């Protein structure tokens, strides 16, 4: 049941995006759709789907070239081509009869080993395959992706009573390892897991909003990042999803669930969908509406629920949110749950509804509590699932609140009350849907589980830790805000190297499971030292930084770096010097120092020049390699994926790209163990070719034209000239020379300090820290 080729039926928004994600994973895919009436191109619908995916923002493809893995066809001429597919998934209209008719046709042509799936968001899987053969039903399993499939981690796998467990296992492994998804095995009930609980929470939020007299933008302030949820919160998410989708899902689930679950929509919501046809982003109007103001600037208008008119309410601030927004998540959640006034009443109502319903659904939608938590986290972008949030508040506190509202406790909460447990998750233990203690089964190799075992932690500082990953591999984990690089992070890498050698370990992994790998250097500290003119201290600090980045390559043991998310500046420089890199497919890597008036000072400039000159064929001129490095660094280019990072030169051909971010530490550990037996310590290069003044002259000529044309500012010119000097090798005129890595590192450090002493650079750093945006001075 190995999936080498796939087919997607239905080239709408979802089907085309699923095809794109298959292409991202390197899987050849056939995309089929109907023949459009009156269109001479019989494959137009499928072609349109590919083009829509290519134009999608955020991008559906990790690299546009991957679209070549998609071939197109139509359901009248090309159905027989399904015989080559190892996996067939439909993403057609959400109508049961249409799906049944399709499966009847598919069964006639699909090979007998193919796995068959539906991407339906709510139609039970067993109803779709009624009347199909036993063999077809054995190979049929629901595969519900969340939109956009590239970015939302959740994949609900939904077996029926007839699905072969081996099919579930094989497909789940494919979804996990190849497609990079977080797998939740859902029961075949209406709405499955995430939509069943998520849509319930959304419709209840609408009711509580109107009862409390709040506005959509006030609710989005209360239910967004302050609660550890996305900025789109409740009603912006509704607009993005489509109010018609929520309308149909809520009605469909409500029709087949008990009255006490209450999926009833408010009259206002029904009016928006049924009468106004305001369906959110797809129609331009929903709970919000975008308009153009003076000077073409976009304005976001909010719906007045009483008048159904749109109003420009400016930037809405909610007192309850402002009071806690700078506190840690646990403190914010506790404070908001006990807040006074209409905001507190609203939040308690919504949160208690969610707690009650998630507990009621335990054992109904899924048989593990962590699957319910993961479904909400991976499908809707929450930091904590409902059971984790109840643990934060104290389960007995939540139970007391629910009873005070006169609610009947679901069996799970009644069992928790009877046992007196304060948390669903305690150490390595959780509870079953019946409230019985059981072993927690982590879905992946995750650091939070290692931290529960104190014997794993070898050293710990506020910003970094050294952990034992087992099998002779150590991990340096950073855990500062945005993993900004400072003394803790550097010292822990040095401690890691020492521990590997002194304690007989095989090698070292550098990675973490924060939100991003690293956003770069600790800019506030750098600016403060520059303003205080602590030049000796800064010179020593840069030397230490260079020594630590290059230690990843020149240590006597293998070192593997596992980047993901933002991997910028110094974070990229650490990655560039690893023996091997295991990068998450969603890695956004770049040497961005010019944005704050600096150049890479931790070996990044040196490394790009070295890599690009090494790629030249014998006899080729050096200048194109120098220009390539200059353009990459001088424009602060950041990759939009690991695939693009490889094409830009940040990753090498032999580096590993892992689709599932949760697996990169596991793979990094495996790479250390593979390298260790025959590892030979490298020595710094002494033979890097440079051009001297000839390179500076060529770059300055181009810079002059750009400056005259207004493409770069006066201070861009200052920074670029320092970058050009480093890339030239600084060796003078009339000769091509070969220099050492240390020579280039010394030039980097000199340029970095020179720029740091200039007012223009200090202004750029200050502006970035204040606004989060680059200054063009």
UniProtKB/TrEMBL annotation:
Tagged with keyword Metal-binding: no
Catalytic activity line of the entry: a (3S)-3-hydroxyacyl-CoA + NAD(+) = a 3-oxoacyl-CoA + NADH + H(+)
Positions of the 3-hydroxyacyl-CoA dehydrogenase C-terminal domain: 191-289
Pfam families: 3HCDH, 3HCDH_N, ECH_2
Domain annotation Enoyl-CoA hydratase/isomerase: ranges: 479-605
Signal peptide as annotated in the record: 1-25
Domain 3-hydroxyacyl-CoA dehydrogenase NAD binding span(s) in chain numbering: 5-188
Highest taxon of source: Bacteria
InterPro entries named in the record: 3-OHacyl-CoA_DH_NAD-bd, 3HC_DH_C, 6-PGluconate_DH-like_C_sf, ClpP/crotonase-like_dom_sf, ECH_dom, NAD(P)-bd_dom_sf
Example GO BP: fatty acid metabolic process
Keyword vocabulary terms for this entry: NAD, Oxidoreductase, Signal
Gene Ontology MF: a single term: (3S)-3-hydroxyacyl-CoA dehydrogenase (NAD+) activity
Protein name per its UniProtKB record: 3-hydroxyacyl-CoA dehydrogenase NAD-binding domain-containing protein
Record organism: Deinococcus sonorensis KR-87
């Amino acid at each position: 049941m190995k999936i080498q080729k796939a087919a997607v039926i239905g080239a709408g928004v979802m089907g085309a995006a699923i095809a794109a994600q298959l292409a991202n994973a390197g899987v050849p895919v056939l995309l089929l759709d109907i023949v459009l009436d009156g269109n001479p191109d019989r494959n137009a619908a499928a072609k349109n789907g590919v083009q829509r995916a290519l134009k999608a923002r955020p991008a559906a493809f990790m690299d546009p070239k991957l679209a070549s893995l998609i071939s197109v066809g139509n359901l009248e001429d090309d159905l027989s081509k399904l015989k080559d597919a190892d996996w067939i998934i439909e993403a057609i209209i959400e109508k049961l009869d249409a799906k049944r008719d399709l499966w009847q046709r598919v069964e006639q042509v699909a090979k007998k080993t193919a796995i068959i799936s539906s991407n339906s968001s709510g139609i039970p899987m067993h109803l779709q395959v009624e009347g199909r053969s036993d063999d077809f039903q054995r190979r049929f399993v629901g595969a519900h992706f969340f939109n956009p499939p590239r970015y939302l981690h959740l994949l609900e796998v939904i077996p029926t009573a007839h699905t072969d467990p081996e099919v579930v296992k094989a497909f789940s492994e494919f979804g996990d390892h190849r497609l990079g998804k977080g797998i939740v095995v859902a029961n075949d009930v209406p709405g499955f897991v995430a939509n069943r609980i998520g849509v319930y929470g959304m419709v209840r939020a609408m009711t509580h909003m109107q009862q409390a007299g709040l506005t959509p933008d006030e609710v989005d302030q209360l239910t967004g990042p302050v609660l550890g949820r996305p900025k789109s919160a409740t009603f912006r998410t509704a607009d993005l999803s489509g109010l018609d989708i929520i309308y149909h899902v809520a009605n469909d689930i409500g029709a087949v669930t008990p009255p006490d679950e209450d999926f009833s929509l408010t009259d206002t919501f029904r009016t928006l969908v049924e009468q106004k046809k305001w369906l959110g982003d797809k129609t331009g109007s929903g709970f919000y509406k975008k308009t153009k103001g003076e000077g073409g600037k976009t304005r976001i208008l909010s719906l007045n629920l009483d008048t159904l008119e749109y109003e420009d309410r400016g930037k809405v601030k909610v007192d309850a949110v402002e009071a806690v927004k700078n506190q840690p998540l646990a403190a914010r959640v506790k404070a908001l749950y006990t807040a006074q006034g209409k905001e507190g009443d609203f939040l308690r109502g919504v949160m208690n509804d969610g707690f009650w319903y998630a507990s009621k659904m335990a054992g109904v939608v899924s048989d593990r509590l962590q699957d319910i938590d993961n479904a909400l986290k991976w499908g809707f972008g929450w930091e904590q699932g409902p059971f984790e949030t109840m643990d934060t508040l104290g389960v007995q506190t939540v139970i007391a609140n629910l009873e005070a509202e006169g609610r009947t406790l679901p069996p799970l909460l009644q069992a928790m009350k009877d046992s007196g447990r304060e948390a669903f998750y305690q150490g390595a233990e959780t509870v079953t849907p019946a409230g019985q203690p059981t072993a927690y089964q982590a879905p992946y190799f995750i650091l939070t589980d290692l931290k529960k075992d104190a014997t794993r932690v070898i050293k710990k500082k506020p910003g970094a830790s050294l952990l034992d990953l087992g099998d002779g591999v150590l991990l340096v984990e950073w855990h500062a805000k945005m993993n900004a690089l400072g003394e803790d992070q550097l010292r822990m890498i040095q401690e890691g190297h020492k521990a590997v050698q002194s304690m007989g370990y095989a090698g070292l992994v550098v990675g973490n499971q924060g939100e991003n790998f690293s956003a770069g250097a600790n800019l506030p500290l750098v600016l403060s030292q520059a303003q205080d003119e602590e030049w000796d201290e800064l010179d020593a600090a840069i030397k230490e930084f260079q020594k630590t980045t290059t230690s990843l390559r020149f240590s006597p043991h293998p070192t593997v770096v596992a980047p993901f998310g933002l991997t910028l500046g110094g974070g990229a420089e650490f990655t560039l010097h690893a023996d091997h890199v295991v990068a998450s497919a969603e890695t956004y890597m770049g040497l961005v120092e010019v944005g704050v008036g600096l150049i890479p000072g931790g070996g990044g400039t040196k490394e790009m020049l070295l890599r690009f000159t090494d790629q030249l064929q014998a006899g080729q001129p050096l200048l194109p390699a120098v220009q390539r490095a200059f353009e990459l660094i001088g424009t602060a280019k950041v990759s939009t994926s690991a695939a693009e990072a490889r094409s830009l030169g940040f990753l090498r051909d032999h580096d590993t790209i892992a689709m599932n971010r949760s697996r990169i530490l596991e793979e990094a550990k495996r790479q250390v163990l593979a390298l260790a037996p025959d590892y030979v310590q490298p020595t710094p290069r002494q033979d890097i070719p440079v051009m001297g003044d000839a390179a500076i002259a060529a770059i300055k000529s181009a810079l002059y034209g750009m400056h005259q044309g207004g493409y770069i500012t006066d201070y861009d010119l200052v920074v670029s000239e320092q970058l050009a000097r480093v890339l030239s090798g600084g060796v003078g005129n009339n000769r091509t020379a070969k220099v050492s890595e240390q020579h280039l590192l010394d030039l980097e450090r000199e340029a970095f300090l020179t720029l740091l002493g200039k007012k223009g650079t200090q202004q750029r750093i200050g502006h970035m820290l204040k606004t989060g945006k680059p200054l063009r001075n």
